[in-house]
Amino acid sequence: MTAPVSVDVSCLLGDAGGDPAAAVHRAVASGFTAVEPWAFDQHVDAYRTALRASGASAPSGRASTLDAERPDDVFDAALELGIGVVVDGCTDAGRWSSAERAAQLAARVNDLAAAAHARGLRLAYRTGSVELRSTVHGTHALHVFVRQLDPRVGLDVDVFAASAAGTNAALLLQVLGERVRILHLTDGSFDSPAPRQRPLGWGGLNLPRILRAAPQAARVLTFTDPAADVTASLRRSLRWLQAHEDQQTHQP
């Protein structure tokens, strides 16, 4: 594999009693060498100590910048923790209700990306399902939004959320192209009224096609189904991804 696979630390907080440092150590014990800290600006000391003690890296991290009064504080925290890509998103359906609202959000993201770039950081917008469930003039609000983004803004695509919204995730990634910098990965089953998450390789997503559609994107594993063993599910996903990408590497 060409790059370490990260795990979304927020998935492990429940098993770690809500302790970010314990969640990082649990991730490393599960076989991960990289993590994506969640709300890292609120837990800088805990993450700093855990990353140093465990030897894990944090290529990306999630924090709220879109509505932050002092986004520079988030960027300072990212630099302190060695995080290169700050990830944020918006789940407020009202901000996707019109072309004007999508444009306002894009302008805010562009301003944040410029501020991040000035500090040697990158900003990635994390897409979920709301941007794909909302339509503006007959097209997904996400595409209206993306057309107005500064080229420095990356995209982080949650493939399960996109699929749950009724979108073909592989085709979406092809349309978004090189702008996709991160994939949040979990498999799923979609043959019941409520989609359910599954470990990679255990659900219905065409994961090989999805991965081929965004070879440049970093991989971040996620799993949030409270009815399942989250830690065990993440281990299964890691093993599947390692086996798949190792196989792709050694193909003639």
Automatic annotation (TrEMBL):
<dbReference type="InterPro" id="IPR050312">
    <property type="entry name" value="IolE/XylAMocC-like"/>
</dbReference>
<dbReference type="GO" id="GO:0016853">
    <property type="term" value="F:isomerase activity"/>
</dbReference>
<feature type="domain" description="Xylose isomerase-like TIM barrel">
    <location>
        <begin position="26"/>
        <end position="214"/>
    </location>
</feature>
<dbReference type="Pfam" id="PF01261">
    <property type="entry name" value="AP_endonuc_2"/>
</dbReference>
<protein>
    <submittedName>
        <fullName>Sugar phosphate isomerase/epimerase</fullName>
    </submittedName>
</protein>
<keyword id="KW-0413">Isomerase</keyword>
<dbReference type="InterPro" id="IPR036237">
    <property type="entry name" value="Xyl_isomerase-like_sf"/>
</dbReference>
<dbReference type="InterPro" id="IPR013022">
    <property type="entry name" value="Xyl_isomerase-like_TIM-brl"/>
</dbReference>
